[in-house]
Backbone:
């Protein structure tokens, strides 16, 4: 879950990318399952997770699709025809960001 929480505003990550960061290669479907079963009270930026091709995974026109599009637009992420340009908006954390962020979390525990 921390990998999802780490996605900064104005960026998106794919389900597969989150799985890789979490140490579960080829675990994109598992990430989708976790997001689908999250309690509503869980405050994660779920809207920043999309498919590897940049598509919003919800059915076009559904309430969830509209909500995700709205949330991304509020962060200046452009959604066109249900897609986000991954070349422009894909989160690309560097290794230091990933290592030191979590090392600091461990020190606080």
Residues:
């Amino acid at each position: 879950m921390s990998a999802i929480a780490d996605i900064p505003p104005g960026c998106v990550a794919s389900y597969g990318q989150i799985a890789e960061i979490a140490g579960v290669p080829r675990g994109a479907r598992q990430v989708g399952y976790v997001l689908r079963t999250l309690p509503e009270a869980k405050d994660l930026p779920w809207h920043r997770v999309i498919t590897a091709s940049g598509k919003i995974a919800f059915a076009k026109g559904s309430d969830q699709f509209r909500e995700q599009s709205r949330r991304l637009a509020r962060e200046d992420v452009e959604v066109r025809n249900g897609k986000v340009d991954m070349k422009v908006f894909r989160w690309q954390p560097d290794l230091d960001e990933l290592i030191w962020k979590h090392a600091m979390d461990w020190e606080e525990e």
Notes: Residues 10 and 68 are 13 Å apart (CA to CA). The first helix runs from residue 2 to 5. Residues 2-108 form a domain with the Arc Repressor Mutant, subunit A fold (CATH 1.10.10.10).
